[in-house]
Amino acid sequence: MNQYIKTLVDQGKLDIVLQKNRWKFDQTPYIISGPCSVESEEMIVDWAVKLRDLGVTALRGGAFKPCTYPVKKAIGNWKEGLREDGLKFLISAREESGLPIVSEIMDARQINELSMDAIDVIQVGTRNFQNYSLLDELGKLDKVILLKRGTWGTIDEILGAVERILVGGNSKVAICLRGVVGMPSYRHVFPSTRWAPDLMMIPALKELCEIPIIYDPSHATGYSNFVAPISKAAMALGADGLTIESHPDPVNSISDPDQAVSIDTLGSILKDIYER
Amino acid sequence: MNQYIKTLVDQGKLDIVLQKNRWKFDQTPYIISGPCSVESEEMIVDWAVKLRDLGVTALRGGAFKPCTYPVKKAIGNWKEGLREDGLKFLISAREESGLPIVSEIMDARQINELSMDAIDVIQVGTRNFQNYSLLDELGKLDKVILLKRGTWGTIDEILGAVERILVGGNSKVAICLRGVVGMPSYRHVFPSTRWAPDLMMIPALKELCEIPIIYDPSHATGYSNFVAPISKAAMALGADGLTIESHPDPVNSISDPDQAVSIDTLGSILKDIYER
Amino acid sequence: MNQYIKTLVDQGKLDIVLQKNRWKFDQTPYIISGPCSVESEEMIVDWAVKLRDLGVTALRGGAFKPCTYPVKKAIGNWKEGLREDGLKFLISAREESGLPIVSEIMDARQINELSMDAIDVIQVGTRNFQNYSLLDELGKLDKVILLKRGTWGTIDEILGAVERILVGGNSKVAICLRGVVGMPSYRHVFPSTRWAPDLMMIPALKELCEIPIIYDPSHATGYSNFVAPISKAAMALGADGLTIESHPDPVNSISDPDQAVSIDTLGSILKDIYER
Amino acid sequence: MNQYIKTLVDQGKLDIVLQKNRWKFDQTPYIISGPCSVESEEMIVDWAVKLRDLGVTALRGGAFKPCTYPVKKAIGNWKEGLREDGLKFLISAREESGLPIVSEIMDARQINELSMDAIDVIQVGTRNFQNYSLLDELGKLDKVILLKRGTWGTIDEILGAVERILVGGNSKVAICLRGVVGMPSYRHVFPSTRWAPDLMMIPALKELCEIPIIYDPSHATGYSNFVAPISKAAMALGADGLTIESHPDPVNSISDPDQAVSIDTLGSILKDIYER
Question: Which residue of C has its CA nearest to D198?
Answer without folding.
Answer: C182
